[in-house]
Amino acid sequence: MKNFNQKIIVITGAGSGMGRYMAIRLAAEGATVLLSDINEEGLNETKSMIEEGKGLCKTYKVDVGDKEQVYAFAASVIAEFKYIDVLINNAGMSIGEATLNEIPLADFEKLINVNMWGVIHHTKAFLDVMLTRPEAAIVNTSSVFGLMGIPSQIPYCVSKFAVRGFTDSLRLELKGTNVAVTCVHPGGIDTNIVSNGIHYKDKEATVAQFKRVVITSADKAAAIIISAIQKKSKRVMVGPDAKLIRFMTQLSPNTVDRVILKRKADFDRKKALNKTT
Ligand SMILES: NC(=O)c1ccc[n+]([C@@H]2O[C@H](COP(=O)([O-])OP(=O)(O)OC[C@H]3O[C@@H](n4cnc5c(N)ncnc54)[C@H](O)[C@@H]3O)[C@@H](O)[C@H]2O)c1
Predict the structure, then answer these.
(1) 196 within a domain of the structure (yes/no)
(2) Tally of domains in the chain
(3) Could you tell me if the CB of 195 is within 6 A of ligand 1?
(4) Residues 6 or more apart whose Cβ sits within 8 Å of residue 141
(5) For 152-251, where are the E strands, in sequence order?
(6) Residue 117, SS3?
(7) Which atom of ligand 1 is found nearest the CA of 18?
(8) 55 lines ligand 1 (CB under 6 A)
(9) Is the residue at 1 inside a domain?
(10) What is the pTM of this model?
């Protein structure tokens, strides 16, 4: 898809981070962006930023983890706009460090509803109208944690591996149709993903340590994802850390395991230092 002018684009989780900056960039290119988020305040801020640039947008308060809300949202979009050209499943949540034994099952289920089922339900709800368009794109947000497993983050890894599996399978199912499918794997991006998450302990120190390791801005990440939509890329690594992780997971999974355990020990040590400073 070379041109977003006059395209109708749904972006979930557009009240913050990468979703916000994709919305601003796509609206500036002439798209009508239909933005959803559970956070109304964040959505309104994004809307004001778009309208300052004279872009066209509409906002919807939707919990992507709630099946009924997702299908009602899609029905109201289709009733008003008849179709959409691009669906960007971006909304997601994180969870603080907790082992499998520590994690409350309700939080595990909530995270899977938001990060995995949100993507699946939006795709099912919009696919038929997207198949009627001359060209269309579905963009699903996985993570580098959809490429490798890490300790104390099982629910997040499960959800992002699931998004990758769903997206890769869907891409093959839709081969030969007008709908391109892209799987997005961000590395560390400077957004509110960690501060917005559920935390069990050391929230401030965890957020501070995350802020120290992120290397790509949300706006730069948005530009990379948009370029991948234009190129109909199957998969996009967002940031140099993501590219390195992908290379390492393909080259030497055993080295990746060793590096993960060492990085986790470093992260914990520096987080402990943050707590005491
Ligand atoms: N920031 C990173 O380092 C990073 C790395 C890999 C993957 N990701 C993924 O990128 C995507 C975008 O996240 P971000 O980094 O911009 O974070 P962010 O927290 O800044 O933005 C995520 C948005 O999703 C919304 N959201 C959360 N739960 C929701 C729900 N139930 N219903 C509707 N909206 C909901 C939040 O309110 C927020 O506005 C997420 O899927 C995240 O998992 C982020």
Answers:
(1) yes
(2) 1
(3) no
(4) 18, 88, 89, 90, 92, 119, 163, 184, 186
(5) 179-186, 189-190, 216-217, 235-238
(6) helix
(7) 16
(8) no
(9) no
(10) 0.96
